[in-house]
Amino acid sequence: MGFKCGIVGLPNVGKSTLFNALTQTAAAQAANYPFCTIEPNVGEVAVPEARLDKLADIAQSANVVPARINFVDIAGLVEGASKGEGLGNQFLANIRETDAVLYVLRCFEDDDITHVAGEIDPLADFETVETELMLADLESLEKRRVTLEKKAKTGDKEAKATLALVDLALDQLRDGKPARHAEVPEDAQREWKMLQLLTSKPVMFVANVDEDSAGTGNEFSKQVEARAAEEGAVAVVISAKIESELALLEADERAEYLEELGLEEPGLNRLIHAGYQLLDLQTYFTAGPKEARAWTIRRGWTAPKAAGVIHGDFERGFIRAETIAYDDYVANQGESGAREAGKLRQEGKDYIVQDGDVMLFKFNV
Length: 365
What we know:
alpha/beta, 14 helices, 6-stranded mixed sheet, 41% helix
């Protein structure tokens, strides 16, 4: 299953530089002028996972296939985007297609890179972009409400239910709050998601700092982290410039460069793992002589649903899942040792998959 995180922000905050580093390509042109990204760039990124390499080594797998997450570089929004300013309408539509929104906020000073507002203020930047998304949601919902209200008056139950959710979102937006803060009934979550509201998506704050602040952050990034805490959101401090340089180095050179900078791991690793946290994702594995692979699922999924990520037939014809916890697999040096030690479990349809499970599905269709 694919997950998309949309990278948004004002022009010249480092979105495309960050995207280039994430995908280790030059697909998104990083330049010092607004709207240098004319079309959204989508990059599939391997999720860093040390456990997968360990499993592959034990299983002597011929191939290693990591999980992947998509990042979409969406061109810089400006004030008035909700009314079509800049290339607003096109970009707002692109954001609707993502599962989460990453607000990249400029937390560095550089006289050579022009700020569209003329000053460095990451929280003001955030407010500008979020306001445009809220205005776009407001306009969209007000238009849809007219039709829904007419249908609801005829007794259409689906229209009535949808109208109630639309009004819930409108109350939030008119109160100056994003739709994600609305208290949505648990049994209406699916219908709420179908509204495709820009501001109902989970958000991550990415504080793009200068090179010297990559390890410790700075006053700007502290403001961003404080605001993220207020929002109940995830915040990551990163230097897009450093990450873009790291992306061009070989593995041994990269480790040496990180050591020189006093960093334990690339900021991109933290960003990707934070994306998993944001979207409430986890990983299970399959491992054998042919292939060791990481699979991405949402927390709380049952074994049949997790099996369906591999193939729909696995879910439809699910019989059971032979399951070994990651630590047990490693401690017993693989499936055979785990089976002998009594660590291989037969799990049924109600089993909730745990992060790190090594699984083999039995099915019949």
